[in-house]
Amino acid sequence: MLNNPLLPGFYPDPSICRVGDDYYMVTSSFTYFPGVPVFHSRDLMHWEQIGHCLTRPEQLPLDWQAISGGVYAPTIRCHDGLFYMVTTNVSHGGNFFVTAADPAGPWSDPVYVKGAPGIDPTIFWDDDGTAYMMGTTDWKEAVPGVWIGQVDLEKGCVVGERVLAWRGALRKASAPEAPHLYKKDGWYYLMIAEGGTEDFHAVTIARSQHILGPYEGYRGNPILTHRHLGFDYPIANVGHGDLVQTQNGEWYMVMLASRIYGGYHKNLGRETYIAPVDWSGEWPVVSPGTGKVEWTYPAPKLPEHPYAEPDHDDFRDMCWNTLGTPEDGTFSTDGKVLTLRSTCDWLEPEKLPHPAAPNGCPGFYGRRQQHMTFSAAVTLAAPDRGMAGLLLLQHGFNGLFVGLTRTENGLVMRAIRNEKYGKPDYDNPRDYPREMKLLYEAPFDGSECTLTIAAKGQQHSLMVNDRVLAETDGSFLGSETAGGFVGAYVGCCVMGAGAEAAFRDFRYTGE
Ligand code: 6LW
């Protein structure tokens, strides 16, 4: 069976391409490093991560304090045997692309594209080999839309006129974005997302016989949305799709969506889903028969191609990320033991470095929470200074922490709930009113301990060894409350300038 979510956990804005019998998929990654994970499949059911597009600090300058800044929606395509991944680094440089002969990497240095405003860039080659780029118009424009222009990939600039291709299906559509272009039966089909990436998200489509338009919207739009299914439906926010045709002629769409649980809460952020598409007529019909994204579909007509799951608890596995671009010596690991260093205080807002000052490096090394019910545990050696432990982290530094702190009066174990109030302000991520609530504190006697964060839905437990320090509702880790574009990460952290700690035997289980 084809099971949804295809990539569980925070894997938004999926883009897919096929080369022969091989399928490749990328997703956005925001302020986590390395950036833009790359997945491979031969049957569309089993997806193995084979690398990241952005693995070198020079490729990915980030401002870690804006957790939902950094890398937005990517597009992956292959042309003349060369892979292209084009995306936006909203924290630095705007739209850029990297190339690779092998999607597992290495990928080139970024080419920042001049004359390409907005976000969500995509590349398309016409039959004569001419390359075009599309993206959203600048956010500040009164009437948003999607532009298209010819692009010189050698020089890294849009050439000639940039044309406003489409403004979306709805009159005054909000957030027309995520453009992808396909050529079929002599028509150029322009598929976008609109309605915004939350409850009203949708996929809409237009077509033209000329690449630069004018594009005419489909009268049956939207071709996919869950906006009409209400707030109890378990799969929400469906939109931002990309299409692929199998070598056998079947069409599929990958798209983002969120699971809601314990109320209207989306702790896992936006995940990657898939649905079959009937494109035997003039316009694509997504998920024929039901018109909504289902948990399972019959397997595609492709030979099954499973792979051996790697050990994700090994600190060298590709599922691990730092928050922000790591500095030399931030972390080191042999797989089992992780040594992590922090060069600043970072969960306490008043101690965040001033925006004008250098960032410093937060000591955080984590992986995605991929299940509504999960447990993460790690063994920590008592730190010589500062604070070290296990952290479940969302946008705005909403988080749950359990760990050890070296205080003037000795070593203490603490459970902390770090919560921000008020509306998210993307321009001033440091300005959230916030409260660091100490849920529990007690002296700790020992040289090491095992820390656990476990969740049964929204009921979260914070433990040291076998002792439950605190139980608390975790719905403030949902995107509706935390804001932003990311999903929860769980991992090891150290806080306090110069603090260092050693972790071992990390285990994540989920159901
Ligand atoms: C993505 C864009 C979007 O680039 O959110 O709201 C951005 N929609 O398509 C980040 O995922």
Short description:
The chain is built from 1 helix and 38 strands.
- The CATH architecture classification of the largest domain is 5 Propeller
In order across it, which strands form the biggest sheet? 4-25-28-37-30-31-32-33
Q: Any low-confidence stretches, pLDDT <50, length ≥5?
A: 353-357
Number of self-contained structural domains: 2
How many E strands?
38
The backbone outline, from C-alpha atoms, is globular
Look at the structure and give the mean pLDDT: 93
Looking at CATH, the homologous superfamily of the largest domain is Glycosyl hydrolase domain, family 43
Structural class: mainly beta
Q: Using the CA coordinates, give the radius of gyration.
A: 23 Å
What is the CATH fold-level name of the largest domain? Tachylectin-2, Chain A
Helix amount, in percent? Answer: under 10%
| End-to-end gap | 18 Å
How much of the sequence lies in strands comes to over 45%
Instruction: Quickly name the level 1 CATH class of the largest domain.
Output: Mainly Beta
Number of helices: 1
Q: Biggest sheet, in brief?
A: 8 strands, antiparallel
- Ligands in the structure? (Z)-L-Arabinonhydroximo-1,4-lactone
Task: Give structural notes.
By secondary structure, the protein is mainly β. The chain folds into two domains: 14-227, 5 Propeller (Tachylectin-2, Chain A); 321-510, Jelly Rolls (Sandwich). The protein contains one helix and 38 strands. It has an eight-stranded antiparallel beta sheet with strand order 4-25-28-37-30-31-32-33, with no helix packed on it. A seven-stranded antiparallel beta sheet has the order 26-27-38-29-34-35-36, with no helix packed on it. Strands 15, 16, 17, 18 and 19 form a five-stranded antiparallel beta sheet that branches. The radius of gyration is 23 Å and the shape is globular. The structure holds (Z)-L-Arabinonhydroximo-1,4-lactone (6LW). Residues 12-13, 28, 72-73, 119-120, 175, 177-178, 193, 196-197, 240, 485 line the site of (Z)-L-Arabinonhydroximo-1,4-lactone.
